[in-house]
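Batch manifest line 502
LIGAND: magnesium ion
JOB: complex structure
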Amino acid sequence: MIAALGRGFIALLRDSGGIFIFFIKAFLNTFTRPVRFRLFLKHIEFIGVKSWLVVSLTALFSGMVTAYQVSHALIKFGGQSVLGGVVALTLTREVGPVLTAIVVVARAGSAITAEIASMKITEQIDALRIMAVNPIQYLITPRLWAAVVALPLLTAMADFIGIAGGYVVATFILGIDPGILFSRMKEMVELMDVLSGIFKSMFFGIFIISVCTYKGFTTTGGAEGVGRATTQAVVISSVGVLIADYILTTLFF
Amino acid sequence: MVKIINLKKKFGNFVVLDGVNLEIKENSLTFIMGQSGAGKSVLLKHIVGLLKPDSGEIWFEDKNIVKLSEKELQKIRRKIGFLFQEGALFDSMTVEENVAFPLKEHLKLKKKDVEKKVEELLSAVNLLDARKKYPSELSGGMKKRAALARTLALNPKVVLFDEPTTGLDPILQHTILELIADLKEKYNLTCIIISHDLPLALKFADEIAFLYQGKIIETGPPEEILKSSHPFIKRFVETALINDKGGEL
Ligand SMILES: Nc1ncnc2c1ncn2[C@@H]1O[C@H](COP(=O)(O)OP(=O)(O)O)[C@@H](O)[C@H]1O
Ligand SMILES: [Mg+2]
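JOB STATUS: finished
ARTIFACT:
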């Protein structure tokens, strides 16, 4: 585990320059013609369809577990009424965005790397070039924007489902009065908390897509190359998401 | 049409092209021959700017494409077709979507006109029946024909073929080359074909060029190649013609 993290971190450092330049190119191609709106929608659908079920399930159980754990701690000090607020804060600020990002990496990100990598080794990317189509503009840019939209949507969904899970545990199992739960939650959770999570998830989306498409786009060496690229993309993006979450939290939110 | 001057390319320390000189005449069918690993694909990829040489010039019409930016290259590439060794069909698209792709990207055609053009191209390569199939459902020969149809969609002037016949049975090899020769007449193409099949080259080529140890060691029409005094070509010709059981050449 530690070794895998270390390897991921080293790979991240080694590739970070390439990934960053790749992202800049994909971003700048937003302003070149033709605008690929249909592909953009198609990729939102792809990311969503791949991830929503697992995101929902993990969010539901995280919300429920968080409610349990927090209630344990709170029983010692009295004050179970803040439970709703604490669960909501944890979810919207941290668990929602990070968990969603990790699920998206595993489900959609890996599939994206594999798809682009196989296009690379079977010369389909060169074929695009030959047909005078800019492969970054065609393959990467629409996916980048799709992730910028899809991750916040999935994160909002995760927040909602997670809070619902916490609510169910708190009222039906722990027997806390729902009225008090909600009024305290409203006091404690500000719009900024929710928004900070949403901003994070946008950033994660950009990061994940940059890593996963870069790894696919630079694949070499046949079918094993595709497997290697996919594994690396998953390791780098999940380690990266965790590191970025820590940095973003301490710096800004 | 295409003129290559002293083209050099290394990968690391490994010299692949060591001063290639070659001129391709307009409306000709030129075969580039050489052993596996001789650098034929590498040479072809230079002509469309997929690879950049270490030094040398490649003239296409009046432009040295070595000096062009990716954007300027895009304009040139619309006049050049390239058939990849494995076809490089988009496997997320059906045959007809593959063929329609360059049309939709570059021509502002109505949907109906795209369909008409796709139909024309697919019937030219005899593949109308497979239009709804995905590349994974096609045989090797069908893939090459589908890729050929896609390559011809934008009416290129020059078409480069990377081993269009390798891996096909002998009858299919002839069918594909007859198809290429027909299309060449029909659309007035200049064709550059990579192959290591000498009998096919002797039958179909206007010009044959031999790539050996990073250089073009001989070019000329088939009769001249047969008379070449270069030891490598002599050996190549002898072995190829002995192996060719049809052997009347
Ligand atoms: N992108 C590349 N990087 C490194 N070596 C390469 C690359 N492309 C081709 N080569 C090497 O160049 C040589 C010629 O390759 P190629 O042109 O594909 O041969 P062929 O004549 O069979 O088409 C081979 O030894 C190959 O390994
Ligand atoms: Mg080759």
